[in-house]
Amino acid sequence: MTKAIGEAAKSAINRVSEVKFAEFSLKLRDQNTEEDSLIEEALQYIEPLAQEKNVSFVVMLDEFQDVIRWGDDTLKRIRTVMQSQKRVCYVLAGSATSVMRNLVYDRRSPFYRQLVEIPIKKLDKTTTSTFLKRRFALAKMRATGSVTEQITTLSDGYPDYIQRLGLELYLSIGQGGSIAEEQVDRAYENMIISLDGEFENYFSNFSPLEREILVALAIGKIQPSEVAREVRKPIFNISKTLTTLMNYGIIEKPMKGQYRITDPVFADWLNRRFGSIRQT
After folding, report:
1. Concatenated DSSP letters for 213-256?
2. pTM
3. Domains and CATH numbers, the chain
Protein backbone atom coordinates (compact mmCIF):
# COMPACT_ATOMS: atom_id res chain seq x y z
CA MET A 1 0.00 0.00 0.00
CA THR A 2 2.85 2.40 0.89
CA LYS A 3 4.54 1.70 -2.44
CA ALA A 4 1.30 2.22 -4.36
CA ILE A 5 0.60 5.54 -2.64
CA GLY A 6 4.20 6.60 -3.17
CA GLU A 7 3.99 5.95 -6.91
CA ALA A 8 0.75 7.90 -7.13
CA ALA A 9 2.31 10.77 -5.19
CA LYS A 10 5.22 10.99 -7.64
CA SER A 11 2.80 11.49 -10.52
CA ALA A 12 1.20 14.43 -8.66
CA ILE A 13 4.42 16.38 -8.01
CA ASN A 14 4.01 18.58 -11.08
CA ARG A 15 0.56 19.70 -9.91
CA VAL A 16 1.19 20.42 -6.25
CA SER A 17 3.70 22.45 -4.29
CA GLU A 18 3.07 21.01 -0.83
CA VAL A 19 2.17 17.51 0.29
CA LYS A 20 1.45 16.55 3.93
CA PHE A 21 0.73 12.85 4.21
CA ALA A 22 0.01 12.99 7.94
CA GLU A 23 -3.01 15.18 7.25
CA PHE A 24 -3.24 14.15 3.59
CA SER A 25 -3.56 17.74 2.38
CA LEU A 26 -2.60 19.22 -0.98
CA LYS A 27 -1.77 22.79 -1.94
CA LEU A 28 -2.26 23.53 -5.62
CA ARG A 29 0.76 24.79 -7.55
CA ASP A 30 -1.34 25.92 -10.50
CA GLN A 31 -4.22 28.12 -9.42
CA ASN A 32 -5.97 27.34 -12.69
CA THR A 33 -6.13 23.62 -11.88
CA GLU A 34 -9.78 22.60 -11.66
CA GLU A 35 -10.53 21.34 -8.16
CA ASP A 36 -13.44 19.18 -9.33
CA SER A 37 -11.12 17.38 -11.73
CA LEU A 38 -8.62 16.68 -8.96
CA ILE A 39 -11.36 15.24 -6.75
CA GLU A 40 -12.63 13.09 -9.60
CA GLU A 41 -9.14 11.81 -10.45
CA ALA A 42 -8.41 11.03 -6.79
CA LEU A 43 -11.59 8.95 -6.45
CA GLN A 44 -11.08 7.22 -9.80
CA TYR A 45 -7.67 6.00 -8.67
CA ILE A 46 -9.16 3.80 -5.93
CA GLU A 47 -10.85 1.27 -8.24
CA PRO A 48 -7.73 0.27 -10.26
CA LEU A 49 -5.77 0.09 -7.00
CA ALA A 50 -8.40 -2.27 -5.56
CA GLN A 51 -8.26 -4.43 -8.71
CA GLU A 52 -4.48 -4.50 -8.69
CA LYS A 53 -4.32 -5.60 -5.05
CA ASN A 54 -7.45 -7.81 -5.30
CA VAL A 55 -9.10 -6.06 -2.37
CA SER A 56 -12.11 -3.87 -1.74
CA PHE A 57 -12.17 -0.41 -0.19
CA VAL A 58 -14.61 1.59 1.89
CA VAL A 59 -14.24 5.34 1.41
CA MET A 60 -15.83 7.58 4.04
CA LEU A 61 -16.37 11.25 3.19
CA ASP A 62 -17.13 12.96 6.49
CA GLU A 63 -19.01 16.26 6.93
CA PHE A 64 -20.36 15.79 3.42
CA GLN A 65 -22.70 18.78 3.79
CA ASP A 66 -19.62 20.93 3.10
CA VAL A 67 -19.15 19.16 -0.23
CA ILE A 68 -22.82 19.68 -1.07
CA ARG A 69 -22.23 23.43 -0.90
CA TRP A 70 -19.85 23.13 -3.89
CA GLY A 71 -22.87 22.59 -6.12
CA ASP A 72 -24.52 19.96 -8.30
CA ASP A 73 -21.66 19.75 -10.82
CA THR A 74 -19.31 18.45 -8.12
CA LEU A 75 -21.93 16.04 -6.81
CA LYS A 76 -22.61 14.70 -10.33
CA ARG A 77 -18.91 14.02 -10.85
CA ILE A 78 -18.71 12.15 -7.56
CA ARG A 79 -21.87 10.19 -8.42
CA THR A 80 -20.47 9.22 -11.83
CA VAL A 81 -17.29 7.87 -10.24
CA MET A 82 -19.24 5.96 -7.58
CA GLN A 83 -21.50 4.34 -10.19
CA SER A 84 -18.53 3.18 -12.26
CA GLN A 85 -16.77 1.35 -9.41
CA LYS A 86 -17.39 -2.22 -8.27
CA ARG A 87 -14.76 -2.67 -5.57
CA VAL A 88 -15.36 0.58 -3.71
CA CYS A 89 -18.15 1.33 -1.23
CA TYR A 90 -18.82 4.93 -0.19
CA VAL A 91 -20.10 6.26 3.10
CA LEU A 92 -21.24 9.88 2.94
CA ALA A 93 -21.48 11.12 6.52
CA GLY A 94 -22.66 14.49 7.76
CA SER A 95 -23.81 16.17 10.96
CA ALA A 96 -26.33 18.39 9.14
CA THR A 97 -29.17 15.90 9.26
CA SER A 98 -31.71 17.89 7.24
CA VAL A 99 -29.20 18.64 4.49
CA MET A 100 -28.13 14.99 4.31
CA ARG A 101 -31.76 13.85 4.12
CA ASN A 102 -32.34 16.24 1.23
CA LEU A 103 -29.37 14.67 -0.53
CA VAL A 104 -31.31 11.39 -0.57
CA TYR A 105 -34.95 12.46 -0.86
CA ASP A 106 -34.95 15.79 -2.74
CA ARG A 107 -35.90 15.11 -6.38
CA ARG A 108 -33.47 17.82 -7.50
CA SER A 109 -30.52 16.08 -5.81
CA PRO A 110 -28.03 14.20 -8.06
CA PHE A 111 -28.19 11.39 -5.46
CA TYR A 112 -32.00 11.22 -5.30
CA ARG A 113 -33.01 7.71 -4.14
CA GLN A 114 -29.52 6.39 -4.85
CA LEU A 115 -28.32 6.20 -1.26
CA VAL A 116 -29.46 4.36 1.86
CA GLU A 117 -30.10 6.63 4.83
CA ILE A 118 -28.69 5.32 8.12
CA PRO A 119 -29.44 7.80 10.94
CA ILE A 120 -26.90 7.75 13.79
CA LYS A 121 -28.41 9.14 16.97
CA LYS A 122 -27.08 9.85 20.41
CA LEU A 123 -26.96 6.96 22.86
CA ASP A 124 -30.06 6.70 25.00
CA LYS A 125 -29.79 6.82 28.79
CA THR A 126 -30.08 3.06 29.30
CA THR A 127 -27.36 2.29 26.74
CA THR A 128 -25.07 4.99 28.16
CA SER A 129 -25.54 3.78 31.73
CA THR A 130 -24.93 0.13 30.76
CA PHE A 131 -21.79 1.07 28.82
CA LEU A 132 -20.40 3.09 31.73
CA LYS A 133 -20.97 0.29 34.24
CA ARG A 134 -19.21 -2.22 32.00
CA ARG A 135 -16.23 0.06 31.37
CA PHE A 136 -15.87 0.93 35.04
CA ALA A 137 -15.98 -2.78 35.89
CA LEU A 138 -13.20 -3.50 33.38
CA ALA A 139 -11.09 -0.79 35.00
CA LYS A 140 -12.01 -2.09 38.47
CA MET A 141 -13.40 1.36 39.30
CA ARG A 142 -16.34 1.71 41.67
CA ALA A 143 -19.18 4.08 40.75
CA THR A 144 -22.57 4.50 42.37
CA GLY A 145 -25.80 4.77 40.42
CA SER A 146 -25.87 8.53 40.97
CA VAL A 147 -22.40 8.84 39.40
CA THR A 148 -23.36 6.98 36.21
CA GLU A 149 -26.55 9.05 36.02
CA GLN A 150 -24.49 12.22 36.46
CA ILE A 151 -22.14 11.28 33.61
CA THR A 152 -25.10 10.27 31.45
CA THR A 153 -26.71 13.67 32.00
CA LEU A 154 -23.52 15.68 31.42
CA SER A 155 -22.61 13.80 28.23
CA ASP A 156 -26.22 13.75 26.94
CA GLY A 157 -25.45 10.48 25.20
CA TYR A 158 -22.68 11.85 22.95
CA PRO A 159 -20.07 9.07 22.67
CA ASP A 160 -17.21 11.58 22.43
CA TYR A 161 -18.14 13.24 25.72
CA ILE A 162 -18.72 9.89 27.43
CA GLN A 163 -15.21 8.79 26.47
CA ARG A 164 -13.65 12.12 27.42
CA LEU A 165 -15.27 12.11 30.85
CA GLY A 166 -14.33 8.49 31.39
CA LEU A 167 -10.71 9.16 30.46
CA GLU A 168 -10.53 12.21 32.75
CA LEU A 169 -11.85 10.11 35.63
CA TYR A 170 -9.48 7.23 34.92
CA LEU A 171 -6.45 9.52 34.73
CA SER A 172 -7.33 11.36 37.94
CA ILE A 173 -8.50 8.39 40.03
CA GLY A 174 -6.76 5.40 38.52
CA GLN A 175 -7.59 1.73 38.28
CA GLY A 176 -9.37 0.34 41.31
CA GLY A 177 -10.46 3.76 42.57
CA SER A 178 -13.86 4.88 43.76
CA ILE A 179 -15.65 7.68 41.86
CA ALA A 180 -17.48 10.43 43.74
CA GLU A 181 -19.86 13.00 42.28
CA GLU A 182 -17.48 15.90 42.94
CA GLN A 183 -14.80 14.07 40.93
CA VAL A 184 -17.20 13.87 37.99
CA ASP A 185 -17.75 17.63 38.28
CA ARG A 186 -13.98 18.18 38.19
CA ALA A 187 -13.63 15.86 35.20
CA TYR A 188 -16.34 17.83 33.39
CA GLU A 189 -14.55 21.12 34.13
CA ASN A 190 -11.30 19.68 32.75
CA MET A 191 -13.13 18.46 29.66
CA ILE A 192 -14.59 21.93 29.01
CA ILE A 193 -11.10 23.42 29.30
CA SER A 194 -9.64 20.84 26.93
CA LEU A 195 -12.35 21.62 24.36
CA ASP A 196 -11.78 25.39 24.46
CA GLY A 197 -9.64 25.58 21.31
CA GLU A 198 -11.87 23.19 19.40
CA PHE A 199 -15.05 25.07 20.30
CA GLU A 200 -13.40 28.43 19.59
CA ASN A 201 -12.48 27.33 16.08
CA TYR A 202 -15.93 25.81 15.51
CA PHE A 203 -17.70 28.95 16.71
CA SER A 204 -15.60 31.20 14.46
CA ASN A 205 -17.01 29.45 11.37
CA PHE A 206 -20.50 30.89 11.93
CA SER A 207 -21.65 34.23 10.56
CA PRO A 208 -21.85 37.21 12.99
CA LEU A 209 -25.65 36.90 13.25
CA GLU A 210 -25.47 33.14 13.76
CA ARG A 211 -22.93 33.65 16.56
CA GLU A 212 -25.16 36.20 18.26
CA ILE A 213 -28.15 33.86 18.04
CA LEU A 214 -26.20 30.91 19.42
CA VAL A 215 -25.03 32.97 22.40
CA ALA A 216 -28.59 34.16 23.01
CA LEU A 217 -29.83 30.57 23.00
CA ALA A 218 -26.99 29.49 25.29
CA ILE A 219 -27.92 32.07 27.92
CA GLY A 220 -31.54 30.96 27.95
CA LYS A 221 -33.35 32.99 25.28
CA ILE A 222 -35.29 30.13 23.72
CA GLN A 223 -38.12 31.85 21.84
CA PRO A 224 -37.54 33.74 18.55
CA SER A 225 -38.98 36.94 20.04
CA GLU A 226 -36.58 36.70 23.01
CA VAL A 227 -33.64 36.07 20.69
CA ALA A 228 -34.64 39.03 18.49
CA ARG A 229 -34.73 41.36 21.49
CA GLU A 230 -31.40 40.03 22.75
CA VAL A 231 -29.54 40.53 19.47
CA ARG A 232 -31.59 43.60 18.48
CA LYS A 233 -32.46 42.32 15.03
CA PRO A 234 -35.81 42.01 13.17
CA ILE A 235 -37.76 38.86 13.99
CA PHE A 236 -37.85 37.91 10.29
CA ASN A 237 -34.05 37.71 10.13
CA ILE A 238 -33.95 35.73 13.36
CA SER A 239 -36.56 33.17 12.21
CA LYS A 240 -34.78 32.67 8.89
CA THR A 241 -31.41 32.10 10.56
CA LEU A 242 -32.92 29.79 13.18
CA THR A 243 -34.29 27.64 10.35
CA THR A 244 -30.86 27.55 8.69
CA LEU A 245 -29.15 26.51 11.92
CA MET A 246 -31.78 23.83 12.51
CA ASN A 247 -31.36 22.45 8.97
CA TYR A 248 -27.67 22.02 9.67
CA GLY A 249 -28.33 20.26 12.97
CA ILE A 250 -26.75 22.99 15.11
CA ILE A 251 -29.97 23.71 16.98
CA GLU A 252 -33.17 21.76 17.53
CA LYS A 253 -36.81 22.50 18.29
CA PRO A 254 -37.86 20.52 21.40
CA MET A 255 -41.34 22.02 21.27
CA LYS A 256 -43.32 24.50 19.22
CA GLY A 257 -41.92 28.01 19.39
CA GLN A 258 -38.80 27.04 21.35
CA TYR A 259 -35.23 26.36 20.24
CA ARG A 260 -32.07 25.12 21.88
CA ILE A 261 -28.52 24.24 20.89
CA THR A 262 -28.26 20.54 20.03
CA ASP A 263 -24.92 20.01 21.76
CA PRO A 264 -25.37 20.82 25.49
CA VAL A 265 -21.61 20.92 26.17
CA PHE A 266 -21.08 23.46 23.39
CA ALA A 267 -24.03 25.44 24.78
CA ASP A 268 -22.45 25.36 28.25
CA TRP A 269 -19.14 26.57 26.81
CA LEU A 270 -20.90 29.47 25.07
CA ASN A 271 -22.71 30.40 28.28
CA ARG A 272 -19.48 30.36 30.26
CA ARG A 273 -17.59 32.33 27.63
CA PHE A 274 -20.17 34.96 26.71
CA GLY A 275 -22.98 34.78 29.29
CA SER A 276 -21.24 36.92 31.89
CA ILE A 277 -20.42 39.53 29.24
CA ARG A 278 -24.09 39.80 28.23
CA GLN A 279 -25.18 40.24 31.84
CA THR A 280 -22.83 43.15 32.59
Report:
1. HHHHHHTT--SHHHHHHHHT--HHHHHHHHHHHHHTTSEEEEET
2. 0.69
3. 34-105 (no CATH), 125-194 (1.10.8), 206-279 (1.10.10.10)
